[in-house]
Amino acid sequence: MQQDVFGPVLPILTVNDVDEAIAFINKKEKPLCVYAYSTNSKCLILVLMQVISRLMSETSSGSFCSNDCILQSLMVALPLGGVGACGMGSFHGRYSFDAFSHSKACLLRGTRFECITYLRYPPYEDRNLSLMTWACTLSQKSQGWCQIM
């Protein structure tokens, strides 16, 4: 496999052990998703969870899915997105809305204490410092000098 496959093709690579799989994934660019398939018999469930846990923690990809390749993309609660060359960000359901929305930061400051806040500008004097300390105590007692929306 030379590059990422974007299409209705699922390349299947077999490896001898989890170390070989991790080395293969890490030597290439970060994939959009890592799909790991392993035996799921009851006597091997602990080994399966160790393999899956290692693959999730020792590789980096946009998403991860074990023993399935369709269900993950159908779940709106899970984001779809990449890292690195596959792109940045998350899309799908609420993640799409958040990705294409802008949260506007607004700070509304009143001018009630402008007669005191001028002290924050140079030249700085000891008297200014003591007045600013006093003004901070006023701010804590009232509702403050600004409102965060």
Automatic annotation (TrEMBL):
Organism: Nothobranchius furzeri
UniProt lineage: Eukaryota, Metazoa, Chordata, Craniata, Vertebrata
Pfam families referenced in this protein's UniProt entry, alphabetically: Aldedh
Biological process according to GO: aldehyde metabolic process
Domain Aldehyde dehydrogenase: 1-105
Lineage: superkingdom: Eukaryota
Gene3D superfamilies documented for this protein: Aldehyde Dehydrogenase, Chain A, domain 1, Aldehyde Dehydrogenase, Chain A, domain 2
Protein's recorded name: Aldehyde dehydrogenase 3 family, member B2
GO cellular component: cytoplasm
Entries under InterPro entries matching the protein: Ald_DH/histidinol_DH (IPR016161), Ald_DH_C (IPR016163), Ald_DH_N (IPR016162), Aldehyde_DH_dom (IPR015590), Aldehyde_DH_NAD(P) (IPR012394)
Keyword terms, alphabetized: Oxidoreductase
Family: Belongs to the aldehyde dehydrogenase family.
